[in-house]
Amino acid sequence: MAKITLDNLAHSYKPNPATEDDYALKELNHDWVDGEAYALLGSSGCGKSTLLNIISGLLTPSQGRILFDGKDVTRAPTAERNIAQVFQFPVVYDTMTVHDNLAFPLRNRGRDEAYVAERVNEIAKMIGMEHMLKRKARGLGADEKQKISLGRGMVRKDVNALLFDEPLTVIDPHMKWELRTQLKRLHHEFGHTMIYVTHDQTEALTFADKVVVMYDGRVVQIGTPEELFERPEHTFVGYFIGSPGMNVIPARVEGATAHVGGAEIALGQGYGALSGKVEIGIRPEFARLSQSEGLPVKVRRVEDVGRHKIIRADMFGQEINIIAGEDDRISPDMNRVSFDASQVNVYADDWRVQGAAA
Hints:
Organism: Salipiger bermudensis (strain DSM 26914 / JCM 13377 / KCTC 12554 / HTCC2601)
Helix content: 10-25%
GO molecular function, one term: ABC-type ferric iron transporter activity
Shape: globular
Number of strands: 23
Largest sheet: 6 strands, mixed
Family: Belongs to the ABC transporter superfamily.
Strand content: 25-35%
Low-confidence stretches: none
CATH architecture of the largest domain: 3-Layer(aba) Sandwich
CATH topology of the largest domain: Rossmann fold
Domain ABC transporter: 4-241
Structural class: alpha+beta
Keywords: ATP-binding, Cell membrane, Membrane, Nucleotide-binding, Transport
């Protein structure tokens, strides 16, 4: 395992980048703590795979350094970094059996056959392929081949880090849940530093100790699932995390009050003069529909999703979402919405503003 340090790191695919917009990965400084599990989360094209490939050595950054336990490995080849990487689509040796595919990284490092057999059987059981060890990989389906790729990534105990680039894309939904569970068990058992790239918030939030949310080539927040949910540091985090995401509403903020459409919304904290694009953010979970309290809304539809109801509504021409309990009754005369003041966040130019006690 290793502590991974990103020092003034940035990357552009252009030969002579002149502005920040020319960078696919904007400047980043961060320490990946030895032994923690991280998820890189964001939409396609946000820079997740670029960052992962820099860490693995498949890509040399345009600027900055990457260090493993303080040693500069920026220009070191992948083989010298002692990492294992699993890609989005399966990479297997078709002419080999499942057993020999899993054994390959260990044999390549001269481990004795008794240890190889023990470890291969252990991993095969973990990925549900112990009954297929003698089969050639050529005749297997895409999900089975990807399980081999995952197994080969996990078979070594001595790696500095395990890197996963959207590894469950071709896996069926039920097996996804099982493999995520196995990855977490592996992490708890051996303490590998794990970095897992995904665009799926469920995968990220259920797998990682810390989630790294990326947007437009920039890391906009690193935090626990609870921190990302309750205090999104950027409006993208609020929008991307949660289902449905955070309501983001243009507002004018004065002290401990937000003004929206001529009405007032109480805030849990006070704020000084704000410039730029000012908005408030409130999770649908912290909004409540009623007959008499709050701001006027027009309910467009109610979606019953089993565990709760999602209310789609309009407030001063702004679409908002409200979550109600599974057993809550929604009547036609419920046309007001109120917000939990302690859960309202304030944003200026998309970044969260820290308030003071009101």
